[in-house]
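README: folding subset

This subset contains proteins for which both the sequence and a predicted structure token string are available. Records are stored as plain text. Below is the entry for Zinc-dependent peptidase (287 residues), shown exactly as it appears on disk.
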Amino acid sequence: MSLIFLYTLSFQEKPEPGIPKFLGIILTIGIVSICVYYVSRYLETVYARIYKKPFFVHFYPMPKKLPTALLSILQANTFYKQLDKQKKRYFEHRVVKFLETIKFVGREGLEVDNDKRMQVTMMVIQLTFGMRNYLLEYVDTIILYPSSYYSILNKTENNGEFNPRSKALVLSWEHFNIGNLHQEDGINLGIHEITHAIHYCSLKSNNISSEIFHDTFLELEKHLSSVELRNKIIETNILREYAFTDKFEFIAVLVEVFMESPEKLNKHFPDIYTYVSRMLNFRYFKV
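--- output ---
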């Protein structure tokens, strides 16, 4: 009798074939999540092609705040001061995230203090403030030299460079400051090199901000194919000669002018101004 009972019990406890219920639920949730992601990504791409902007730019459930010592530096920033209260919180959050992500290194005895870190960070955040993906994917380190330095990469004396292989942005602090002091001459080292990093990210990354930057840049290239327009750009002297080195230098110099003299660029070349504002999704100037 006992043998029959044990046999019956073991038969009843035998697990059913197939995937356990809880694993099935997890698998289903995973598949649905992936489908939702790719569908929403596709829809946003379509939306961006029509409206030239992402579904949204800012979403931070728990915005981060700067320590008081750093906040005082931020509050002196010209661009930050013109933002409304909500956008100031967004800007501050992005500054904190960037400082947490990027390593700053001083060379040739240069001490990288809070002011230097903040000045470079605020410039990056301003340039990418209209982009949802604002952390530069191909920049892990920012290296500051006191002045011009010899570049091992280019074998030349440089004021700044972007090195994608090392994921490094290199700047001469002297020339970075000169660019900030003369804000209407269309020459700004920080803006120039950061734009190179943004441009590179647009070629290598597949996020919506990079996609918009890249697609709009291609549209701008077609627009600039007109010989008459190119001659007009040269005649107005709105871009310095270095802009015509290649397409990468052209867009870097163009963004310098866009950020420093938006009214001037919009007055002479409103179509080009519009293309740049779309590339960066930067719609904060009143021109």
